[in-house]
Amino acid sequence: MIGRLQEPDVVPSGLSAQKMTDTRTQTPRAVPQPGSPEQQACNVCSDHMITVSWSEKAGWAAPELKPLTNISLSPAASVLHYATECFEGLKLYRGQDQKLRLFRPLLNCQRMLRSATRISLPAFEPVELLALIERLCAVDGPRWLPKDNTNGLLYVRPTLIGTEGGMGLKRPREALLYIIIVSYPNHNPIAQPTVDLTTQDKKFSLFASHDQAVRAWPGGSGYAKIGANYGPALHVQEEATRRGHDQVLWLFGPDSQVTEAGGANFFAVVRNLSGEIELITAPLDDKTILAGITRQSVLELADAYLTEGSEHELAPVTVAVRTLTMGEMILAYEQGRLLETFVVGTAYYITPVTEIDFRGRKIAPLQSTYARTLRNWIGGIQFGVEKHEWASIIKE
């Protein structure tokens, strides 16, 4: 009896931007005018999207660049029941030199891989994801961010979701990667490439979370950019809004350790008891906060240009990645040593914090010189005022 031939093993395909198909829309969408209600709503997508399906057996399929359309999912899809989802957020900038730029986009792609690994979604090569992002930006960027719209922005959102249908908590065997671009306002004057350091800051206040509200904890998933970290935080954000604040300052532990501010990283400039000025932000060691790209950039720029020996008019700082408690911050404020606080992130850029509400007590730092200096430096890179390797130019 002749035995049955054994089928050869199929090696799953890796993500490959070179395999992408390209189908353009025949009905271009209306581009919102800068500052219009449509743009302010942040819900108008550009003409095209990129989708890539994945299965455990076959791996990554050929990417498809195609007209924007809705996604069809099984009502039993893993993402809808078990939150198997991660995403990224980065901006496409139209510089003062009329060129399109992304800011350190490979870091976003590498972070998305870490998030995907944490939520048991398929792996990919970050450089391939970056190639897909750059391609979509090259296709839709010129029309949605024309050359006369210098200092304009678009928001780029890569997302990876588990699509396998069926009940049961398990790693998804099917997934979908997609990338969209959203019309995004640049309505905040702090997001301009240069800012007058003598002008008054726009009010931006934080509401410190109460004891019963915890965003993340050691050993959890707070470091990953997954939707499950954001949805549960909305009820505290609503309380902050009702009290007249912009975002939540998330605290952790009985000593009220400062972690994140909304979806942004938090910094404080404090003159310590020895008279040294510290630039303080929370560490990443326990994986309770997001490793922000703007956070990393601020730390690197401060270490290079604001520390002792640097040629700058500002007083030198010591970059301190360490735990900061509300008790320490309140004491520094009472003693006149809390110089400034600010938040950083893709959405909030670098925003000085003008007030913190901690258990009914108001903390109001008096200056924002370091924050403004840092945002001028980073804004200059993003908008083409300053030539830098962190800026990735999109070919049009």
Low-confidence residue ranges: none
Kindly give the count of domains: 2
The CATH class of the largest domain, by name, is Alpha Beta
Q: Whole-number radius of gyration?
A: 23 Å
Question: How would you characterize the overall build of this protein?
Answer:
This protein has helices spanning 37-40, 78-82, 105-118, 126-144, 234-242, 293-305, 326-334, 369-382, and strands at residues 21-22, 48-55, 59-60, 64-67, 85-87, 90-94, 100-103, 153-162, 174-184, 205-208, 247-252, 257-261, 264-271, 277-281, 317-321, 338-345, 349-352, 355-358, 361-363, 391-394. It is an alpha+beta fold and 396 residues long. It has two domains: 17-187, D-amino Acid Aminotransferase, Chain A, domain 1 (2-Layer Sandwich), CATH 3.30.470; 205-392, D-amino Acid Aminotransferase, subunit A, domain 2 (D-amino Acid Aminotransferase, Chain A, domain 2), CATH 3.20.10.10. The strands form two sheets. Strands 1, 2, 3, 4, 5, 6, 7, 8, 9 and 20 form a ten-stranded mixed beta sheet that branches. Strands 10, 11, 12, 13, 14, 15, 16, 17, 18 and 19 form a ten-stranded mixed beta sheet that branches. Strand 12 (257-261) and strand 13 (264-271) form a beta hairpin. The radius of gyration is 23 Å and the shape is globular. The model has no long low-confidence stretch (mean pLDDT 93).
